[in-house]
Amino acid sequence: MLLLLYIVVVVIIVVLVVGLYEKSTNAICTSKKRLDGKTVIVTGGTTGMGLQIATDFADRGARVIIACPFKNEGVEALKYILEKTENTDVVFKILDLSSLKSIREFTKDIFNNEKRLDILMNNAGVGVVNEFITDDGMSFIMQVNYFGQFLLTLLLLPLLNKTGTKTDPARVVNTSSVLHNFGFIYLTKINDIRFWFPLQFYANSKLCLVLFAHELTKKLKRNNVVVNCVDPGMVGTGIFQSAGSLLGCIMTTIGLVLFKTPWLGAQTAIHAALDKKAGEMSGQFFKNCKLTRAKRSAYNDETAEKLWDTSASLVKLSSEEIEKCFL
């Protein structure tokens, strides 16, 4: 009984310390950049930080495409953004990152209906959920948080490159996490749900996003696209609901009280997408609207290249398709 009480006290102290740190390091994007005439995609743009990002971009005059797998959520998000910004050029499209078919259908629709793409916000993600293998043969957490975003980004790359210029490149922003520090890359076990537990899968996926940005930057060379990653910090969003009804409710409440709000959590992603200096660099990592560094292994060239090859194989991208992505 004393041991349990001790553990509870320690957890409370840790949460309070982390909460105070998050509150004291809040940063706000100060960019006044307008986005009139530009087109933006925000995955997971229907709730939490994604909704705040989409609302900010709509308020700046952009054509905003919000994407998620849930129609009702999308309809409600459209109403919210319209009420907040009065921008009617906001659309919702179905995108299920746990389905390679859905990703290909989404990107085909974008190419058929959009003339440009200035910003891709890879914001969507799942938390610590009950893990399973998807129909595409991957861990659900890994596919939604990383593999699906890998495929989506590469398929949209030609439109991004066509839109961007040397002086005003198109931007890709990946949402990583402080938990990437606890991630591991073990390629032979990357989707083994018997080897990893859900929280470790989450950490692994967030490390993969940083390695992806590092490798993509090398392959882009002189293309008109930059790709960077952000750590939004500890944010009180609905992602905690994945921990279960009771625990999820408790964690969400704690998160909203002690950690950043979704609006505050969105600020670094908005900064990476709009700030002038951020547009002059690629393969970098931002936190609290400042350039920082991910953990050292996130910049390992050999690991990044091997992860790229494994990822391309798992999402069924042929070498010919990959070449077309960079045209």
Q: What features would you describe in this structure?
A:
With about 325 residues, this protein is an alpha/beta fold. It has a single domain, classed as NAD(P)-binding Rossmann-like Domain (Rossmann fold), CATH 3.40.50. The protein has ten helices and eight strands. Strands 3-2-1-4-5-6-7-8 form an eight-stranded mixed β-sheet, sandwiched between helices. Strand 1, helix 2 and strand 2 form a beta-alpha-beta unit. Helix 2 crosses helix 8, helix 5 runs parallel beside helix 6 and helix 6 (about 200-220) packs across helix 9. The longest helix has 24 residues, at about 140-165. About 50% of the residues are buried.
Helices and strands in order:
Blueprint: H1 2-24, E1 39-43, H2 48-59, E2 63-68, H3 71-85, E3 90-94, H4 100-113, E4 119-122, H5 140-163, E5 170-175, H6 198-220, E6 225-231, H7 245-258, H8 262-274, E7 285-287, E8 290-292, H9 301-314, H10 319-325
Parallel strand pairs: 1-2, 1-4, 2-3, 4-5, 5-6, 6-7
Antiparallel strand pairs: 7-8
Helix pairs in contact: 2-3, 2-8, 4-5, 5-6, 6-9
Brief account:
This protein has about 325 residues and is α/β, with parallel strands linked by helices.
CATH domain fold name: Rossmann fold
Q: Mean pLDDT across all residues, rounded?
A: 90
Element-by-element helix/strand order: HEHEHEHEHEHEHHEEHH
* Uncertain ranges: none
Note the gap between the termini: 64 Å
- Number of structural units classed as domains: 1
Strand order of the largest sheet: 3-2-1-4-5-6-7-8
The beta-strand count equals: 8
Q: Which structural class best describes the helix and strand composition?
A: alpha/beta
Indicate the CATH class.
Answer: Alpha Beta
Helical residues, percent = 40-55%
Strand-residue proportion: 5-15%
| Largest sheet features | 8 strands, mixed
- DSSP helical segment count: 10
CATH architecture: 3-Layer(aba) Sandwich
